Amino acid sequence: MLTLIPKEIEKYASAHTIKESNVLSELVKETNDKTTLPEMQVGHLEGAFLRLLIRITSAKRVLEIGTFTGYSALAMAEGLPEDGELITLDKDLEATEIAKEFWQKSPHGKKIKLILGDAIESLKKLHGSFDLVFIDASKSDYINYWNLCMPLVKKGGLFAVDNVLWSGRVLNPKEESDIAIDEFNKYISEDKRVEAVILTVRDGMLLAWKK
Ligand SMILES: C[S@@+](CC[C@H](N)C(=O)[O-])C[C@H]1O[C@@H](n2cnc3c(N)ncnc32)[C@H](O)[C@@H]1O
Question: Is the pLDDT at 20 greater than 80, yes or no?
């Protein structure tokens, strides 16, 4: 992933952000060693930001689309209260085995429930209501995830969507994923059901408040 923020700035921000838990740091190492696309993890800064969002919204029930090796799920679970619940969806058996192994090492892992399978199919079977949804799976399905999640999110709930600047490729979309993200951003900016803002955090993060 081409980084939009200068490396030194990212490093400085990370150094002055709440420290990553040991389990999360170990999970980063394991993901680097065992997977081919470790940069898919949200990482320290965005993980800490997601955790903060959970805290400031007092979220208790969270839905995540795109688990991978479990970094963002665990970062968010760390911000949930003891009786909080996070449901996370993914179809990758191998990556989610790593996720489960590391969640077990954390006292917050018990708050996480993984649903394996195609995210669209899993979403069709889910019932509300969620306080916060984090979307971070197939870019070409972002609009579908969004619309399937809408009835599941409570009024006043929050959407967080990752990679909406797509390494800057949204400025000159060429490939299918570039076009999909650009279309998603246009769709959301006109969606009257929410108030949305794009933050230039990492690869771009869209936050939206459901009216
Ligand atoms: C960018 S990664 C998620 C990273 C994760 N949030 C983290 O911080 O580690 C995207 C994930 O979406 C999953 N995914 C892609 N298409 C999917 C689909 N149709 N159904 C379920 N999961 C899907 C992939 O298997 C991959 O693990």
Answer: yes
Q: Is the CB of 72 under 6 A from ligand 1?
A: yes
pLDDT tens figures, 139-149? 999 999 999 99
Burial class (CB in 10 A: 0-12, 13-18, 19+), 173: middle
Distance set, CA 196 to CA 165, 179, 207 (Å): 14, 20, 6
* pLDDT attached to residue 3: 78
Domain with 133, as residue range(s), is 7-210
Domain-located, residue 69: yes
Q: What is the CATH number of the domain that holds 72?
A: 3.40.50.150
Residue 162: phi, psi to the nearest 5? -90, 160
Q: Is residue 68 part of a domain?
A: yes
The alpha carbon of 210 and the centre of ligand 1 are apart by a number of angstroms equal to 24
- Which secondary structure element, helix H or strand E, spans residue 95, and what is its range? helix 93-103
C-alpha 137 to ligand 1 mean position (Å): 4
Domain annotation covers residue 1: no
Which H/E stretch holds residue 139? none
Residue 193 domain flag:
yes
Tell me the two tokens of residue 7. Answer: 């490396």
- Å from CA of 141 to ligand 1 middle: 11
Q: pTM of the prediction? A: 0.98
